[in-house]
């Protein structure tokens, strides 16, 4: 067995986080409750409760690759459970006369401070890694293909995550590949994590790599084979005693999540219709009518949830033409009016779709729907394109804020759009929806190159 590696992991980060958070919840308790409760007993109980809740909610399972949206979700979940715990404690010992208003203020201030600390620590660590090269892990990849090249690029392009990539081993000839020289390199360079492409190693080679990693305290991770499956978030279930893997787990198939998303859609779309469209529509209508004859609104059939067709509404931005349902708008398109150019650039033309949201055909956030003719074309040409129709289409989406909005100039554009849409479908959360909405608003104010 090789010598044990020291200092490879940031073993102090999680204990420090625990101590700071416990210091916050106990420190604030002094101001809110210690005048009429036993401080020792109260501190012991809320500390025990906090630790128990955090273990079960995985509150401290934040890693260098964890996204900010995941951290927000963890904070919100911990806050809810902790608030319920303190309320239950006050109800059980009602003689303490702990007012619910004080409890809610206590929890709110606690989590405000905890959130500030958690994100400050998160960004300081990123800065420390990128600027000073500390808190890093060395990596190597076994197997060279499209996915491992993308992973190598991720390691090299994101120093804030703290990965120092040393080498990618190519396996052009799997049987002739010399694992011993590979193992020698991993040991001599003190590699911390090895990533293997499953498709490029035989079973015998895979077992040797696993044994070597186990015996040398190297973390071993696997990449799925290099077929064009953009996301494999497998769902593990049991049918009686038979293990079953589902290729795709869709959070919005859960009735509770459907209710949350639909409630958000109704509230948000109603707000926009009442406070924005109520006064903006007459102004846009006058501008459209002054410049060209034709209707104020443009209606187009698009494919939505379960591939069902629906009428999608927009403010008309083009001169009336028979090709509007066949050809996408291109840069410098002569069909676009001057008013149309402005409302397209600012995305105002999309606002009538909030009526589609209110009627239930669309959602505020989701995969953008395409013209029926284009949908049929892409469904035949682009792998996994139809997965987008597992959920309602959206006014905006993760793909749109990630650089894949507007005209599809090549298959690369639609492939990228499908990739982000599938990620959204498999990783939906209300916080992710809010992030997309906020980023969409920022992009609309700043202006985008492909908004034409």
From TrEMBL:
Q: Respond yes or no to whether keyword Transmembrane helix is given for this record.
A: yes
Which InterPro entries does the entry mention?
A: Bact_transf, EPS_sugar_tfrase, Undecaprenyl-P_gluc_Ptfrase
Chief location: membrane
Membrane topology according to the record: Multi-pass membrane protein
In terms of domain of life, where is this protein from? Answer: Bacteria
The record's listing under NCBIfam families reads: EPS_sugtrans, WcaJ_sugtrans
Q: Where is the Bacterial sugar transferase domain?
A: 261-445
Q: Which PANTHER family match?
A: COLANIC BIOSYNTHESIS UDP-GLUCOSE LIPID CARRIER TRANSFERASE, UNDECAPRENYL-PHOSPHATE N-ACETYLGALACTOSAMINYL 1-PHOSPHATE TRANSFERASE-RELATED
Protein name stated in the entry: Undecaprenyl-phosphate glucose phosphotransferase
One GO cellular component term noted in the UniProt record for this chain: membrane
Q: Which UniProt keywords apply?
A: Membrane, Transferase, Transmembrane, Transmembrane helix
Q: Where in the cell is it found?
A: Membrane
Which GO molecular function annotation, any one, does this entry have? undecaprenyl-phosphate glucose phosphotransferase activity
Which EC number(s) does UniProt give? 2.7.8.31
UniProt lists the family membership as follows: Belongs to the bacterial sugar transferase family.
TM region positions:
12-34, 40-59, 71-94, 106-125, 266-288
């Amino acid at each position: 067995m090789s010598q044990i590696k020291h200092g490879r992991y940031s073993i102090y980060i999680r204990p420090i986080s625990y101590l700071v958070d416990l210091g916050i919840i106990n420190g604030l308790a002094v101001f809110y409750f210690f005048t009429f409760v036993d401080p020792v007993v109260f501190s012991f109980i809320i500390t025990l409760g906090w630790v128990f809740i955090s273990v079960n909610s995985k509150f401290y399972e934040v890693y260098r690759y964890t996204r900010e949206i995941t951290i927000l979700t963890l904070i919100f979940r911990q806050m809810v459970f902790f608030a319920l715990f303190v309320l239950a404690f006050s109800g059980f010992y009602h003689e303490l006369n702990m007012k619910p208003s004080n409890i809610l203020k206590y929890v709110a201030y606690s989590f405000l401070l905890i959130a500030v600390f958690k994100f400050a620590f998160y960004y300081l660590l990123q800065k420390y890694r990128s600027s000073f090269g500390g808190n890093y892990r060395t990596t190597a990849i076994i197997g060279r293909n499209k996915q491992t090249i993308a992973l190598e690029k991720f390691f090299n392009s994101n120093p804030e995550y703290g990965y120092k990539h040393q080498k990618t081993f190519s396996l052009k000839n799997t049987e002739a590949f010399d694992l011993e020289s590979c193992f020698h390199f991993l040991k001599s360079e003190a590699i911390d994590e090895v990533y293997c492409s499953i498709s490029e190693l035989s079973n015998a080679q895979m077992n040797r790599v696993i044994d070597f990693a186990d015996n040398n305290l190297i973390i071993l991770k696997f990449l799925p084979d290099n077929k064009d499956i953009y996301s494999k978030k497998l769902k593990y279930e049991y049918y009686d005693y038979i293990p079953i893997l589902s290729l795709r787990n869709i959070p919005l198939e859960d009735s509770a999540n459907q209710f949350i998303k639909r409630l958000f859609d109704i509230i948000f779309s109603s707000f926009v219709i009442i406070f924005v469209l109520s006064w903006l529509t007459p102004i846009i209508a006058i501008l459209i009518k002054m410049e060209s004859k034709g209707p104020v609104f443009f209606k187009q059939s698009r494919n939505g949830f379960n591939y069902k067709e629906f009428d999608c509404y927009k403010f008309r931005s083009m001169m009336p033409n028979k090709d509007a349902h066949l050809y996408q708008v291109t840069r410098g398109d002569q069909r676009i009016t001057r008013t149309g150019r402005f409302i397209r650039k600012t995305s105002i033309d999309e606002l009538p779709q909030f009526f589609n949201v209110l009627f239930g055909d669309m959602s505020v956030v989701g995969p953008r729907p395409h013209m029926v003719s284009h949908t049929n074309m892409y469904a035949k040409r682009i792998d996994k394109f139809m997965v987008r129709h597992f959920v309602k289409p959206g006014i905006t989406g993760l793909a749109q804020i990630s650089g894949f909005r507007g005209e599809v100039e090549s298959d690369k554009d639609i492939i990228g759009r499908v990739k982000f849409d599938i990620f959204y479908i498999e990783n939906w959360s209300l916080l992710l929806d809010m992030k997309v909405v906020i980023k969409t608003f920022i992009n609309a104010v700043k202006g985008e190159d492909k908004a034409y």
